[in-house]
Amino acid sequence: MPVPKANLYPDFNIVRLSHVELGVTNLAASRKFYADVLGLQVTDETATHIYLRAMEERGHHCMVLSKQDRPTVGALSFKVYSEVDLDAAQKWFETRGRPCAFGERPYQARTLHTSDLHGVPLEFYFQIDRLKPIHQRYELYRGVKPLRIDHFNCFSEDVDAAVAFYNDMGFRVTEYTEDEATGRLWAAWLHRKGGVHDIAFTNGSGPRLHHTAFWVPTPLNIIDLLDLMATTGYLANIERGPGRHGISNAFFLYVRDPDGHRIEIYCSDYQTVDPDLEPIKWGLKDPQRQTLWGMPAPKSWFEEGSLFEGVAPRPPALKSQPIIAP
Amino acid sequence: MPVPKANLYPDFNIVRLSHVELGVTNLAASRKFYADVLGLQVTDETATHIYLRAMEERGHHCMVLSKQDRPTVGALSFKVYSEVDLDAAQKWFETRGRPCAFGERPYQARTLHTSDLHGVPLEFYFQIDRLKPIHQRYELYRGVKPLRIDHFNCFSEDVDAAVAFYNDMGFRVTEYTEDEATGRLWAAWLHRKGGVHDIAFTNGSGPRLHHTAFWVPTPLNIIDLLDLMATTGYLANIERGPGRHGISNAFFLYVRDPDGHRIEIYCSDYQTVDPDLEPIKWGLKDPQRQTLWGMPAPKSWFEEGSLFEGVAPRPPALKSQPIIAP
Amino acid sequence: MPVPKANLYPDFNIVRLSHVELGVTNLAASRKFYADVLGLQVTDETATHIYLRAMEERGHHCMVLSKQDRPTVGALSFKVYSEVDLDAAQKWFETRGRPCAFGERPYQARTLHTSDLHGVPLEFYFQIDRLKPIHQRYELYRGVKPLRIDHFNCFSEDVDAAVAFYNDMGFRVTEYTEDEATGRLWAAWLHRKGGVHDIAFTNGSGPRLHHTAFWVPTPLNIIDLLDLMATTGYLANIERGPGRHGISNAFFLYVRDPDGHRIEIYCSDYQTVDPDLEPIKWGLKDPQRQTLWGMPAPKSWFEEGSLFEGVAPRPPALKSQPIIAP
Amino acid sequence: MPVPKANLYPDFNIVRLSHVELGVTNLAASRKFYADVLGLQVTDETATHIYLRAMEERGHHCMVLSKQDRPTVGALSFKVYSEVDLDAAQKWFETRGRPCAFGERPYQARTLHTSDLHGVPLEFYFQIDRLKPIHQRYELYRGVKPLRIDHFNCFSEDVDAAVAFYNDMGFRVTEYTEDEATGRLWAAWLHRKGGVHDIAFTNGSGPRLHHTAFWVPTPLNIIDLLDLMATTGYLANIERGPGRHGISNAFFLYVRDPDGHRIEIYCSDYQTVDPDLEPIKWGLKDPQRQTLWGMPAPKSWFEEGSLFEGVAPRPPALKSQPIIAP
C-alpha cells in the first residue's frame, strides 16, 4: 500500500487551510465574479487588493485578490494552533532545506513564509484579525451562499513525494488513487480540520494550483449558481459538473474565474476526525472514482491549472492517465 | 412565424395525457426498474402485464408494462373530458382519414383507438378506474418520488405537419425551435393540462417515442435518484443530465429502462393556462436551447428512440442538426 | 354529502385567479415587504399605486398596492377565457341579482365589476398587458422566489352558500371540511386552473379576505424566507408555520404584511385537472386536517382577516370551532 | 464574562462524542423507531441489545439499545485519541475524586468507566471495531438519512460548575446563555470535534440527558421525516420544530422515541476548529436565542429528560426561566 502511516504526533499543529492570494488582471471583473456571483463578502479593498471572506468565517479573509499583469497564485496559507507552532514549523522546514522567513502580512500577526518540497509557496500564521459573525445576517447571503473555504488541490509532478512530505507535517490521507500499473500514488486527499481534505495532490505537470474549493450548504445552492451563471454571461465559465465525486462523496461544480483560476463549489463530504480512519483506495481506471455519476471531466480539467508565482512546473514522472471526456 | 394560431375552441376536449403501454422483454427487470428504482406504485400485475401509477395520481395507471419479444410502444393514451368528447374525437379523426375503432381496455370505460397523421397509435378514454389517494402515505414514497406522468416526446419526420395536426386538436404550443435556415419548425412543445407540454415533437426519423416524462417535487429528488442508480448497477442507464433545459426551464434527467425506453425525470416548469400565452421561440443553433447549463446531449439522445408497434419510421425531411456532444 | 355536484359546463369560462388590490397605509413599507423581502417584481409604480408580478407570470400584475388611509382589500380579480365569457359572466351575475358594471382598469381591457353572494367585490377581465418572460432572468430572483399567485382564501359567514354559488360558476371542489355535528360545510377549496384551489372559504365572520397565496418552488425557499425575515426585523410578521397542511398536502408559511394583510407561501400541492376528481373530505375535529404536522394555528390565524372595502362582515351561522393553539 | 478561558492543552485528547446506551422497554418498538423511521443501520443485535450506526460512521455503533424494565440512560461514551490518553484520563478523573475503573465493552478495546462532577456516567475508549464504509451504498438510506451522531445535551443543576469541569477537560465553549440577572451561565455548548458542540448543558433538574442529536444533510431530510412520522403513527412523537436555533444556527427537529428519550435531528451548524474562536453570548430573555424563528419550545421540552441509571437528579440552584410556549 502506497499510503504512509499517519503521523499522529506531528512536530507542529496546523489547524486548517486558511486562504490563498490570487493574482488577477482585472480587479473589477474579479470582484464581480467573487462577490456578486459567488457571494463572498468583501472585508476590505484597496487600489490593488480585495479581501474576501465566506459567510461563517470570522477570520479576516479566505481569499486575497491582487492586481497583477498576468494570472498567478501567491502562497497557500495555513493557520497553526499557536505561536509556538510557528517556530516549530520554521524548524521543520529548515530541517528539510526549505527557505524560511518571517514577514508581515496585512491583518495577520507574525507569519512564516516558506515552500514545500516542490516549491509551492506556503505561509503559516497563528493569528489573523477576527471579525464579527455574519452567518445569521441572512440579508447578506448571495450567489452560491459560500460558507467557508474548504480545500486546495494542486497538480504535483510526484504525488508519492508530496504525500510523504505533507503526511510528515501531520496531514492525514483520507482517500487516494493508486496507479495499478506501477503501484504508485496518482492522487491523494489529506486533511487537518476534520473533513475529507485541506489539500489534495493530483498527478500532472506541477506544481500548479488546480483549484480552491468553497463549502456550501446543499446541492440546491449549486443549482442556483448554475442558473445564475448561465443567464448572466458566465456560461463559458462553467467547466465541469454538477456531479458527485466517488472520492469524497461530495456534490461538486467547477467554475473558472475571469482569469481562468478554477474554483470548486463543494458540499456533503464527511467527518474524518478519527485518528484511525482508514484511507479509502480507488483505482485510477475506476470510472466512478472521479465521477460517481455525471459526465467525465473535460480535457481542460485534467490539463489546466494556475501557476504559482515564480515557480516553473515540471512534467510528472508518472504517465498514467485517467478517463477523460472525448 | 411557423407556429399556427392556437385553436381555442377545439372539436373535442382533451384533459391531459394519461398513460403509455411499453412492450418490455423481461417483466421482472422492468418491475425492478420502474417500481423499486424510480418508485412508481404497482396497482395490478398479471403474468403478462404490470400496471403502475405515480404518487399523486388517482387514475388506475400512468404506465402499462407488457411482456413482448422485443421492446415496442403501444398507444399514447389521453383522457377526454366526457363521453361526448369521445364521439367528437372519433368524428374528428375520421374526417382526417384516420382509422377509428372503439375497443376494450382493462380498467377503462369505452375507448377510442386511432392514430395520428404519421401513424402514432393513440387512445382516448373518458373514464378509468379511480383509486384511493396515496399522496399522503409517505411510507410508500421511494426512488425519485414520482408524482405524476408529465408528457410524451416523439421524434417526428415532419414537425410542421405534426404541430398543425395537434394544434387543430386543441393542443397549444408553449415553446418551439425554429430552423433559422428554412424557417421551418424543428421542435415544438404543446400542452392541454396547463404545464409546458403534454406532448412534444422533435425532428428526426419518425414516428418514434423519444421519451415519457414524470414530474418530481424538487431537483434534490433527481440527485437522490442519481446517487441510487450510480450505486445499484444502473450507472449505464443514466443517459443525460442533470441539467436545466432552456426550453421549459425544467431541471431534468434522462435515464434508459432495461429495454432502452427513455424516461425523463422532470421538475420546475411553469403554468401555461392563459389562452393568450405567447409561445417562446428558440433558434436551433442557440446552445442554451436544449441546455441552459449542463453538458451537451450525447448522440444517443438525438438518435435513439422506441418504435411504435407496427409503425416503420421514415427519415425527416428537415436535415438541420442541433449541437451534439462529441 | 354536503358538496354539490361539479358544474362541468358552466355558463362562462374562468381561467384562473389573477390579482388582488390591497389598500396599504405606507407604500414604501409595503414595497419593501413585497419586493425586497418576498421578492415580487415591481412592474410599475406611481405616487399612489405599485404593481407587482411573480417570476413566471407574464400578465402585468398579480398584486396592486394602493395607498389608503387604512388597510382594505379591493376586488378579487379573475381572468376569463375570452371577451365572450365577460358578457356571459355579466348575464350570470345579473341573473343572480348582483350589481354589474363595466369599467376601466390600468393595463386591462374591458373589465366587469361585480360582487359575489356575500358582497365580495369581484372583477373579471379577458385581457391584460403581457410582459416579457423573466423566469430565466435568475439575477432577479430574490426573497422567497415567488413564481405565481396561487389562490385566495376568504372567511365566509355561510360556506355552504358560498360553495353553491362558486360551484355553479364552474369552480370545482377538491377538498372540504365537514362539521360532523351539523353535516354542514365548515370550509372548502375550489379550483379552476388545475391546482387544489383558486379560492377557498372558511367559516367565520365574513366576508373578509383571510389570505392571498403565492406558489414557490420548494420548501427550502420558505426556509430561506424565514431566515431572512427573522433577521431583518420581520420576526413578528411570521404568524404560522412552517408546516404541512393535511388539506392540499401543501408545505406552507403564513406571514403578515406591514398592514396585517396575510400572505401564504405555498408549495407542493397536486394537479386536479380531471373532471371526475373526487373531493377529499376532512372532519373538523381531525387534528391533521389543518396541520399534517406542525404547531396548531394560533388564534389570530383563525380570527383576523382583511376587510373588503365598504363591506361589513357578519358573524357566521355555524358556531363550530376547529383546534386552536392555546 | 462567565465563560472560562479555553484550555488549549488539556491533559488528555478527546476526539469526539461516540455513542450512548439507551435503556428501552420494548426492543422491537425501539428498533422500528430508530432503524425504520429514523434510518439508523443495525450493525448487530442480540436478545437484549441492538447496535446502530449512522450512514457515514465507520465505528461499530453510535447508539446501543438495551432492554430494561424502565427507560434509562447508560454512559455517555467518548473516543480518545490513543491509549495513552486513556491512562491520562484516568489520572485526570481520579485527581478530581471521581471513581474510575477499566472494563469490557463489546466491540471496544480497553474502556475507562467514570463519571463527571454531577455523576453523569462517562466512558472513554480509544479503539472500537471498524466497519466498512456504507456512505455510498445509497440503497440503504432511509428515514431522515442520519449521517452521524452529533452531540449530547444534558440538564445540569449547576451549569457554571459543569462548564468549568468540561472546559478543563479540553472541551471549548462555542456559544452560551447568560442569566443577565445573576451573571451566571444558564446554558453552554462545548465542542471537541470542530462543530458547535459535542456536549451541551442546560439549567434544570439534573443530571439528566435532555437529548442525543444526529446530523443530517439538509432541512429537506427533516421535512421528509416529519411527513413520514405524521402519517405512520408517530405524530405524537414530534415534540418541537422544525425551526432554526439562534444558538448554533442549526435547523432542528425534536422527536421522542417510544420510551420518551428525546432525539434531535440537526443540520447546518458551522465549523469551530479555530482555537481562538470567540464564544457567542446570548441573553436568556432573547426570544431568538432558542428559536431564531419557529414556535417557542413546549413545556415538556424544558422539563422532561431521561434519567441516568442510578443517578438521582437535584433541582438547579438557578431559578431563572426562558420563554416557554403557553
Characterization of the model:
Four copies of one chain form a homotetramer. With 326 residues, chain A is α+β, with helices and mostly antiparallel strands. The first copy, chain A, has helices spanning 27-38, 83-95, 159-169, 219-230, 299-303, and strands at residues 14-24, 41-45, 49-53, 63-67, 72-80, 101-105, 108-115, 121-125, 148-156, 172-179, 184-191, 199-203, 208-215, 238-244, 251-256, 262-267, 280-283, 306-307. In chain A, the strands form two sheets. In chain A, strands 9, 10, 11, 12, 13, 14, 15, 16, 17 and 18 form a ten-stranded mixed sheet that branches. Chain A has an eight-stranded mixed sheet with strand order 2-3-4-1-5-8-7-6, covered by helices on one side. Chain A is globular, with a radius of gyration of 19 Å. Chains in contact: A-B, A-C, A-D, B-C, B-D, C-D. At the A-D interface, loops of A face loops of D.
